[in-house]
Amino acid sequence: MAALRIALLGPPRVELGGEPIQVDTRKAIALLAYLAVPPERHGRDVLAELLWPDHDQEHARGALRRTLSTLNKALGAGWLAADRTTAGFADTSFWLDVEQFERLLESCRGHGHPPEDVCPDCAEPLREATRLHRGDFLAGFALRDSPSFDDWQYLQAERLRRELADALARLVRIESDLARWDEAIEAARRWVAVDPLHEDAHRQLMRVSAWSGRRAAALRQYQACVRVLDEELGVAPLEETTATYQAILDNRLPPPAAAVAPAGAVAEARPAAAPVPAAPVPLVGREAEWTAMLAAYDAVEQDGHLVVIEGEAGIGKTRLAEDFAAHARARGAVVLAGQCYGEEAGVAYGPFVEALRGALPGAGRLAELPAHWLAQAALLLPELADLYPGLPAPQQAGEPAMRRQFFEGISQVLHAACSGQVPGVVILDDLHWADDATLDVLTYLVHRLRGRPLLLVVTWRSEQVPGGHRLRRLAAEALRAGHATDLDLGRLTEAEVAELVRAVAPDQADAAARLYQRTEGVPFFVLEHLAAMPGEGQLPGGVRDLLRARVSGVGEAARQLLATAAVICRSFDLDTARSASGRSDDEVVAAFEELTAHALVREVADDAYDFGHGLMRELVYQETSLARRRLLHARVSEALAVRARGRRSQPPPAATIAHHLELGGHPAEAAVQHRLAGDQARAVHANTDALGHYRAALVLGHPDAAGLQADIGDLETLLGNYETALAAYAAALDAGEPGNQAELEHKLGSLHLRRGDWDAAERHFALTLRALGSRGDPARRADVTAGRSLAAHRQGHDDDALALAKEALRLAERAGDPAALATAHGMLGMLGTHRGDHSTARDHLERSLALAETLADPSARIAALNNLALAHRATGETDQAIRYTEAALELCARQGDRHRQAALHNNLADLLHLAGDRDEAMTHLKQAVAIFAEIGEPGTLEPEIWKLVAW
């Protein structure tokens, strides 16, 4: 039989042959847990009553029979046995974490000392036992209709939690005796988390913090103890706790006591307090930042927190984040990570795709998420659709998709993936290279940390994030709100460099002062100098020379593979590197083994590698000849395209392929990929990225210049950049086919209508109708006529406006087109409100809204909601008007139409003022003014833009 592993400490996990079993009911997992702890046979009636107390005996036994059958099918024959009266495990050779946890603890009782004492031989069993305890027994699992099972689960959890607390208390003593201070502090923190009202746990954490040199952390722990005792019990700490605090404050804390020697051991053979050798590369000069990160993480309870780690290149931002990630994982946290790359700044949402992909191994946590959130996240990570077949299409997933729903889907999946007994951690590295779309999602997450227990850690290079950058504004806002910590890493002092040298290369300690002068305290440069010349007294002349020396130490094949990897510019896999390099499989494997042995690249996952540092990658790329770089870029683009076509669930990485094609000297093919990358970015509302790709396609000579200019015009219109949009539409007309003239003239007329240039709008509408002809598409003619009606109304020609609106409705009815009908009814409703014919106005506007709700594009629905709000305002129904305007504003914000968003803020401000809510009215008015000021030509006041109320 395949090996069976049952893990019940923490969220339940059952694996058969290394794969999770599939069962369709929670009762099956509950029954399996009850039969396994301990593995013995139970009466069928007892099990039926335990799990189905609300059923009569016959139905309860039937439910038990079906559940046993489900388990047998999932586990396979031989594991379970049942007869007419009992059920249980037939084979008890399965691995059970509860049993292993208790066996490890029991093994410590055979070392010849009292149970409350410890010896060095207790260390490994206690470490392994505490690692096994991932969380409370069946954490996050419950049966709503089985109180007896819940009672059993609670008693098991309490018993195992007490055993864990005892094990942690003993482990703190052992790690202290061995001077393993980080491990001792970690064990003490877990002990406090398990039993926060146990003062001995707080005292031990205070002691080990002080013994390890973290005096400030020890003093803060006393304050935390005082606070929790007061809040939970209303009592002050014991005198012993206060005395420990005072001893630390006065620097007179006694040293730790030695562990007892195991029975029969010679005491002198193993000094009890012998320190473990220091880590090869300790984290020097970052004690304050490390303490701040731990404090930020410990403060995460109901609300999340943002930690910003910034500093210059090579200062140790990533190292600090990685060390914290390891610390969080040791505490049982789920850690997801993503990174930005300079060469892939045009790939929308890159670090979030990477972080979401890291959640897939724990995708079971996502099973309880509503399907529509998974569907939104699947727009970025199509693999989710493979894991959860049948996901619905995202709501209103036309062009453009609904930004807020999309962002919330990403947020929901991240938070679900990070859920657990301790807060999860999301790390986003090198955000100075982030694209606008990534920053949009990051902003959304930071604004919604309240009520979501998550630590969000971000890093960026200070020199590449100037004062007015979005990242700095976002961090400042979070700091003011009190849910952020900003860590600005400085260079190491001369003393800290000397400490680092003594720890890593004590035989070069005499060169520390010179090394400090050469590196100016940048940790990466210090470590690279030391690593390059171990045991030698002389230092290389500079970092570039040092990195060259490291590369020259490998063979020709390895250097070629390194150059190929530098061209790929991202975490790379053997297959892509082999395809692009032209080397055989054996040569590639041997070369990568050589590169990893020299620490030039590192393995980050199965078959995935990255450079040991970004500066190494930059150097290798620059040192590769231009001719070879062009060749490799072309090969990489081909390899990526082939691999992408082989993954049906994942669209081709068009932005990356375009980058390589362009640098590989294939502009025509690059232009095609840039166009595709723009379409992909536009589909997920990364409009700035889409514009960049469309413009790149134009520069590279894409044959559809007219179509690209029209796309650019559409996006610039949404962003409110009207002069740029007009120029793009005019260029599209110049470059386009005659058959496209009507569509482009219509776009130009609508754009002039937004700007309030009525004569220009009328000119272009007339040209549209002329291009369509009298027998042209009646739906398009209806839209144009409705636009002419709006222009006439805005100029005060209401009789003409009404005649044109009626003509638009006649044409729309002839066409039977819902979009044209919605626009025509909306125009007639707007005019009815203006004339005071409120009954007719509402009838038209309600028809317009009903038709608009059938359309994928939300534009008509936004207009109908706004005009209905104005109609209700005209009759004094302010509350209803506010509700309609709020709904319109939410849709408009998702669509990203900046001008109309400003108008809706303005309308809502007026309504709120009428309702007496002056503070909220002022908030919306300020938002309206801020957006209006961004619309149109920069630095030019265009009054008609500010007058927009209805459309």
The CATH topology assignment of the domain at 1-195 is: Arc Repressor Mutant, subunit A
CATH superfamily of the domain at 1-195: Winged helix-like DNA-binding domain superfamily/Winged helix DNA-binding domain
Beta-strand percent range: 5-15%
What Rg do the Cα atoms give?
34 Å
Let me know the number of strands. 15
CATH class category name of the domain at 1-195: Mainly Alpha
* Integer average pLDDT: 86
Strand order of the largest sheet: 9-10-11-8-12
Main sheet characteristics = 5 strands, parallel
Straight-line N-to-C gap: 71 Å
Per CATH, the architecture of the domain at 1-195 is Orthogonal Bundle
Helix content, binned percent: 55-70%
Outline the low-pLDDT stretches.
259-279, 397-401, 533-542
Envelope shape: globular
Helical segment tally?
Answer: 43
**Derived structural class:** alpha/beta
Topology:
Layout: E1 4-7, E2 13-16, E3 19-20, H1 26-36, E4 42-43, H2 44-51, H3 57-75, E5 80-82, E6 86-89, E7 95-96, H4 97-107, H5 123-132, H6 147-177, H7 181-194, H8 199-211, H9 215-232, H10 239-249, H11 287-299, E8 305-311, H12 317-330, E9 335-339, H13 350-358, H14 371-378, H15 383-387, H16 403-417, E10 424-429, H17 436-447, E11 454-461, H18 470-481, E12 484-488, H19 494-504, H20 512-519, H21 523-532, H22 543-552, H23 556-568, E13 572-573, H24 574-581, H25 585-597, E14 601-605, E15 608-611, H26 614-623, H27 626-645, H28 654-663, H29 667-683, H30 687-699, H31 705-719, H32 722-735, H33 741-755, H34 758-772, H35 778-794, H36 798-815, H37 818-835, H38 838-852, H39 859-874, H40 878-895, H41 898-914, H42 918-932, H43 943-946
Parallel strand pairs: 1-7, 8-11, 8-12, 9-10, 10-11
Antiparallel strand pairs: 1-2, 2-3, 4-6, 5-6, 13-15, 14-15
Helix pairs in contact: 1-3, 2-3, 4-5, 5-6, 6-7, 7-8, 8-9, 8-10, 9-10, 14-16, 16-17, 17-18, 19-20, 19-21, 21-22, 23-24, 23-25, 23-26, 23-27, 24-27, 27-28, 28-29, 29-30, 30-31, 31-32, 32-33, 33-34, 33-35, 34-35, 35-36, 35-37, 36-37, 37-38, 37-39, 38-39, 39-40, 40-41, 41-42
